[in-house]
Design a protein that fits this description.
Belongs to the short-chain dehydrogenases/reductases (SDR) family. By secondary structure, the protein is an alpha/beta fold. The chain is built from eight helices and seven strands. Helices cover 43% and strands 15% of the residues. The chain has a seven-stranded parallel β-sheet, with helices on both faces.
Length: 254
């Protein structure tokens, strides 16, 4: 699929992985909408690149629809990338004091990291279905963001691992559901990535996680996530798969 001239929306587009993706798709010729709740960063990015920023709550149907409408006004929507974040509650299933893990905190994490991804996926797919197909019948691609925690979640990560596992599990089913419409669905499962959000703490994280990555022995870079998204957009035979992007890292128990 050709990126140039297509409209793209990146949900979470003001964050580390999202910003890198916005920059990459913009450089490739897409008409990008950065959708996020981080107004200052989003507006600054939009002004720098000459793109559009829309304040977007991924958990809200109305909010996501508004961002999609903005993207459609710029051109045929063919690329939806969801890399938004949110609160991630955690803790052992039963604490040292014998208390069970908080149910409301679990529900909140599922809402942000799974239900919201489903929301973006379904609304983005419905918008893509309205577009005219390209040669070969393709209408577009949806890229979701899971995590290697979906496969080997660590102690205390039950809510997050459950949510990301759900994102991974939706990938093949969504790809099969949307195949008659010519819409592909691909997931990315990043390992440990060093983003600007960590600030000065990034050095400590790099020192801890870097040596645990088999090769290259460092944390991932946002640009590497964005490069993969770029390739996923252009390679029409990548569909229904969750791709690990982790330098062969496998999370230990803790």
């Amino acid at each position: 699929m050709q990126i140039t001239g297509s409209s793209a929306i990146v949900v979470g587009g003001a964050g580390g992985l999202g910003e890198a993706t916005v920059r990459r798709l913009h450089a490739a010729g897409a008409k990008v909408v950065a959708a996020d709740l981080a107004d200052d960063k989003g507006k600054a990015l939009a002004q720098e690149l000459g793109i559009r920023y829309v304040r977007t709550d991924a958990t809200s149907e109305e909010s996501v629809q508004a961002a999609i409408a903005e993207a459609e006004s710029a051109g045929p929507l063919r690329i939806v990338v969801d890399v938004h974040g949110g609160p991630a509650g955690g803790g052992r299933l039963v604490g040292k004091d014998g208390s069970p893990l908080d149910l409301d905190a679990f529900r909140t994490t599922i809402d942000f990291y799974l239900t919201a991804v489903f929301n973006v996926m379904r609304l983005g797919a419905a918008a893509m279905a309205r577009q005219e197909p390209l040669d070969g019948g393709s209408r577009g691609v949806i890229v979701t963001t899971a995590s290697i925690a979906a496969f080997e979640g660590q102690i205390g990560q039950i809510p997050y691992a459950a949510a990301k596992g759900g994102v991974a599990s939706m990938t093949l089913v969504a790809a099969r559901d949307l195949s008659p419409l010519g819409i592909r669905v691909v997931g990315v499962a990043p390992g440990t990535f060093l983003t600007p959000a960590y600030g000065q703490a990034g050095d400590k994280l790099e020192a801890y996680w870097g040596p645990q990555v088999p090769h290259p022995r460092r944390m991932g870079r946002p640009s590497e996530y964005a490069e993969l998204v770029h390739h996923l957009c252009e390679n029409d035979y990548l569909n229904g798969e969750v791709i690990r992007l982790d330098g062969a890292l496998r999370f230990p128990p803790k």
